[in-house]
DNA sequence: ATGCCTACATTCTGTAGA
């Protein structure tokens, strides 16, 4: 089974790229972030025509996540638990039946947090990460395959950036951000890409500005984090960076894992 | 030090992203 995560930066602006990618890459489950659409505005029919089931958790203008899947999920949950006042659409979980049991797949869009000295934005990011950790700890107790896939807005290590010195005061790379990410790893979650390659640097995002793609000035911030039961089934990973060279690309590219499910 | 570029919502410009 092929499971992918991709921040598409606007599903309506990206529908041609998305359909091309679904035809070419053919993921069994695709986790999308930054759909920037309400549920009613999501281009559902084009995607369903390619044989995908569509589940969305959208909002007006920005954020928004989705799960596209060849099989219909048994259950779907919207929103990250832990704060009923949080109105930002950044989390959706699907439960899928597979041979021998279930796999849980979450599409998450972790807050950017910049500017890092903002009195609201960075604390919101850290609070969201604490809620994710609590959720992950709870789900871990189920002892099921679980994939926390998404745009984490976290550069885990210096070699995950072309030039880490550019990021030292940035919310994506601050020590507190990286420590929160490590707490997730310390629960037992495995970074799928790093579990399958020593290759570095590897990037999943290149800014639109200043010729970042042409200079390969990227960062690795899109991750598949696996519970032990999911990592036991991991075969390999890939970063499908060729889509960054397409016409009208997203600034992120798909990160995929191949599993023995 | 700042903008670079893009999407979106409402415009003839601002917010947000990373």
TrEMBL record:
Site for Transition state stabilizer, residues: 153
Enzyme nomenclature, EC number: 3.1.11.2
Annotated site, Important for catalytic activity, chain positions: 222
Keywords linked to the UniProt accession: Hydrolase, Magnesium, Manganese, Metal-binding
Annotated Mg(2+) binding sites: 7, 34, 151, 153, 251-252
Site residues (Interaction with DNA substrate), renumbered to this chain: 252
Domain Endonuclease/exonuclease/phosphatase: 4-252
CDD domains: ExoIII-like_AP-endo (cd09086)
Cofactor(s) listed in the protein's UniProt record: Mg(2+); Mn(2+)
UniProt key word ATP-binding: no
SUPFAM superfamilies xref list: DNase I-like
GO BP field: DNA repair
Residues annotated as catalytic: 109, 151, 252
Binding note for cofactor: Probably binds two magnesium or manganese ions per subunit.
GO MF assignments: double-stranded DNA 3'-5' DNA exonuclease activity; metal ion binding
PROSITE patterns according to UniProt: AP_NUCLEASE_F1_4
Family: Belongs to the DNA repair enzymes AP/ExoA family.
Protein's recorded name: Exodeoxyribonuclease III
